[in-house]
Specification:
By secondary structure, this protein is an alpha/beta fold. It is 41% helix and 21% strand. Strand 2, helix 2 and strand 3 form a beta-alpha-beta unit.
Length: 284
């Protein structure tokens, strides 16, 4: 008889310089009410103590954790693909080394996908959880929203640690892509007439402020360039027409300008606060 506490899911975690956070991520998996059949930790050529710590964790959970080490740093997209390539389970779930899950995440998400076999990708909501905050109480009922392909051109509906998908889909993360690699995969799946669903329940948590409040403008430019390249990939593959390509590009550029102005404004506000403090000290 199958063990009802184990679900046929492979969890893939890309790891890079994550000695301070990886134990929290793994613990959130170990605390699942229904645990995954396997967890693959992929060291992306960290070059520090990360791999040694991953080996220790592997020994601690030797029955369901595997560690693989990449010889060259290639980014999260390639690390996830490396883990995906050796996965043995019919479903793949992604978690980042600095994030965590609600204990009911795998049970709820796997049960939904099992009952809805036409769904290729299922995500859910993700929130920022500060270190001094407790896990939110989950509602007894939640609804599922079907995500349209076109909506993914204008907004990423999922954080990567919320996604579970069928391992047999014919798409992977674009090798070597450093930004917006997750969004491109969601887009490719959705524009191939595969069903994409979001569960409206907060089952994943980031433990640092969401990007945009204090991010470097250089990172923002990199993200923007990769997002625009996604539209080119979809257009070249015949997934979107020229009009949709132009509209998505213009909308993305407008969003980029707004984010950049927000960062610059935050910097000016901080400089003004420092200037006011200096003036007050002079008066004293």
């Amino acid at each position: 008889m199958a063990d009802s506490t184990i679900v046929p899911v492979t969890v893939v975690i890309p790891c890079f310089h994550c000695t301070k956070t990886i134990k929290r991520a793994v613990t959130s998996i170990a605390l699942q009410t229904q645990k995954p059949a396997e967890v693959i930790l992929v060291d992306d050529a960290s070059g520090d103590d990360t791999l040694d710590l991953l080996r220790e964790i592997e020994q601690q959970y030797s029955d369901w954790i595997k560690v693989i080490a990449l010889a060259k740093n290639q980014g999260a997209a390639s690390a996830r693909n490396a883990g995906w390539s050796i996965a043995t389970q019919p479903y793949i779930a992604f978690l980042d080394a600095d994030d965590s899950w609600h204990p009911e995440k795998l049970r709820i998400q796997y049960e939904y996908m099992l009952n809805n076999p036409d769904v290729a990708l299922c995500g859910h909501q993700c929130i920022w959880l500060r270190d001094d905050e407790t896990l939110p109480v989950l509602p007894k009922d939640f609804h599922a929203t079907q995500i349209s392909p076109r909506s993914l051109l204008f907004k990423n509906a999922f954080s990567t640690p919320t996604v579970m998908l069928r391992s047999d889909i014919p798409f992977r993360f674009q090798e070597g892509k450093r930004y917006a690699e997750d969004l491109l995969l969601w887009q490719q799946i959705a524009f191939s007439d595969l069903k994409v669903i979001r569960l409206e329940s907060q089952l994943a948590y980031v433990h640092k402020s969401l990007y945009g409040e204090s991010g470097l403008s250089s990172q923002l430019r990199g993200m923007e360039g990769e997002e625009l390249s996604n539209f080119g990939v979809l257009y070249s593959a015949g997934k979107i027409n020229f009009l949709l390509y132009i509209l998505a590009t213009l909308f993305s550029i407008i969003k980029f300008i707004k984010r950049l102005l927000k960062i610059k404004l935050n910097i000016l506000v901080r400089l003004a606060d420092v200037f006011v403090c200096l003036i007050r000290r002079e008066k004293i």
